[in-house]
Specification:
The chain is of the alpha/beta class. Helices cover 26% and strands 17% of the residues.
């Protein structure tokens, strides 16, 4: 056993080593990120397997006229997309020859988002493939069709070009994940044959499925990092971005004044299933992808709300509806259904262009006023509740609905998405968490005391602009008017405009929600009362 003097000496040495280790971690952060000035600062390029090296050499010869690996600074620059059908271009049409046929159903489109960005690059590659699992992005992992594994594709491109951006959309396919394809097929078949909504078969297991997606995506992102290291890159040499999936369906389709019809528009889903997708399935999936990015140090772009107002059968849809391709007589006939169309990929391109230029680690892309364009906002949105000082209750979308003109009423605060709002300080609009295409709206545009305030399509008009002043919320077009709960003789108080005063019914706390299981996640309240 050690004597007391020896123990003190060992403890002193341990403290000294701890301080040295801490300094080694902190000093680089104080100095900022490293910017290698010499090739010697980078990892050594690892040799590829013989079959991949032959492909790489042939590609290098096509690019430069010689098969050798050039120094990074002397290569052509490149952008690259990896993942599944959400980013491959499936649903867009105009497919690359050989990728939409028996033997290869990657469905890569020439109109896919990476070819439409405003990011400067010499080369733009889309190696995503419909049906890909996260493991298809792991170098040396499973392949699809007659293709190289996507991780192996990346290893080759990374040695022949200077890959500046790797844009990943993955996690919807594979055992143990959410398995979007089978779920969407089941739900569409249920509607076509009128066998009842499909969501009861999935709602209770959705958290388990999304966590499986998280773990698989983390594995893919970690492998991509290693693939780039093996290709001689430092993290400062390229950007890795994970983007979430936008919601393809909405229970509000009948608000479309030009509603094409259930069959003509291809929106053959029960409204209850569309509500499940938008209000529970996609948000929980987004949370899982957000965690995967955070756990792997990956830049993250939340696009989960980007298509709100542009879902199947809504105005200016960004998604292809149920579509059966004539001439295909197998399970691939309907594979293009419920995927982003050309407009959707255009919005993707707008989002990634802005995100790349921003340099932000996390950002959100939405269409804030039904313009059909993606607009980037820094950080990730926190939707808050509006609690009234007089009643202690919250502003609540009646019936968990977001249809146009849905009343906003007084109800006990429960953390549900029909009580969540996000304030856009630039446009002065208050967006519902149920749909970013629904804003608090002074009914009929009448900025006068007593007018009801409901939700309606976001359009940026004066009757949707509000100013947060202290504990009051004033109409931007008439700051003498404030949001307030009325005081009816009978029934539930509703949100209205009132002449500003010191009344506590006009005083609000715009506050974070701290509910372990918000309504709509652990229960079936997410459906809404008007979706059947």
């Amino acid at each position: 056993m050690l004597g007391s003097a020896a123990r003190r000496e060992r403890a002193t040495r341990r403290r000294s080593l701890t301080l040295v280790a801490a300094a080694a971690l902190v000093l680089p952060m104080l100095a900022g990120p490293a910017s290698p000035a010499h090739a010697a600062d980078r990892p050594t390029v690892q040799p590829l397997p013989t079959n991949l090296e032959a492909i790489r050499a042939a590609e290098a010869t096509a690019l430069y006229g010689a098969p050798g690996i050039r120094p990074l600074e002397q290569r052509r620059t490149a952008l690259i997309t990896m993942g599944d059908s959400e980013i491959s271009g499936e649903g867009v049409g105009n497919y690359v020859p050989g990728t939409h046929q028996p033997g290869n159903w990657c469905d890569r489109s020439y109109d896919q988002a990476v070819f439409r960005t405003g990011i400067a690059a010499d080369e733009k590659y889309n190696i995503a493939c419909s049906g890909a699992t996260p493991w298809n992005l792991v170098a040396g992992g499973p392949t699809q069709h007659n293709e190289l594994n996507q991780g192996d594709h990346l290893a080759i491109k990374a040695r022949n070009t200077h890959v500046k951006l790797i844009w990943v959309v993955v996690g919807a396919n594979g055992d143990g994940t959410i398995q979007f394809g089978p779920v969407a097929t089941d739900c569409a078949i249920s509607r076509v044959f009128f066998t009842g909504p499909c969501y009861p078969r999935y709602t209770d297991q959705w958290t388990i499925r999304t966590d499986g997606s998280r773990r698989a995506v983390e594995e893919a992102l970690t492998s991509i990092r290693q693939t780039m290291t093996n290709a001689g890159y430092l993290r400062t040499d390229y950007e890795l971005v994970l983007m979430s999936y936008p919601s393809p369906g909405s229970p509000d389709v009948e608000d479309n004044p030009n509603f094409p019809g259930w069959y003509a528009g291809g929106c053959l889903l029960y409204l209850a299933d569309a509500a499940f997708a938008r209000n529970k399935a996609v948000p929980l999936f987004e949370s899982a992808l957000r965690a995967a990015a955070r756990n792997t140090g990956t830049r993250y772009l939340d696009a989960s709300r980007l298509f709100h107002g542009h879902e199947v059968c809504t105005d200016s849809t960004a998604v292809r509806g149920l579509y059966i391709e004539v001439g295909i007589w197998d399970e691939n006939a309907a594979r293009q259904s419920f995927h982003p169309n050309a407009r959707g990929h255009g919005m993707f391109a707008q989002c990634i262009t802005q995100f790349h230029a921003s340099g932000q680690e996390q950002a959100t892309c939405v269409d804030p006023a039904s313009t059909g364009s993606g607009v980037l906002y820094p950080g990730l949105f926190e939707f808050k509740q509006l609690r009234n000082a007089a009643t202690g209750t919250c502003v609540d979308g009646k019936g968990y609905d977001s249809r146009n003109s849905t009343a906003q009423q007084s109800y006990g605060c429960h953390g549900g998405r029909n009580q969540g709002f996000w304030y856009d300080p630039t446009r002065q609009s208050l967006h519902s968490e149920l749909s970013h295409d629904r804003c608090l709206d002074v009914s009929g545009g009448s900025l006068s005391a007593g007018t009801a305030v409901n939700v309606y399509d976001c359009h940026g008009g004066a009757n949707q602009k509000f100013v947060l002043t202290g504990n009051q919320i004033r109409a931007a077009g008439n700051t003498n008017l404030c949001l307030a709960f009325d005081s009816p003789w009978f029934g539930t108080p509703r949100l209205r405009l009132a002449t500003c005063s010191t009344s506590t019914r006009q005083q609000w706390s715009f506050e974070s929600r701290n509910f372990p299981t918000p309504v709509g996640y652990g229960h079936d309240d997410f459906i809404g009362s008007r979706v059947y």
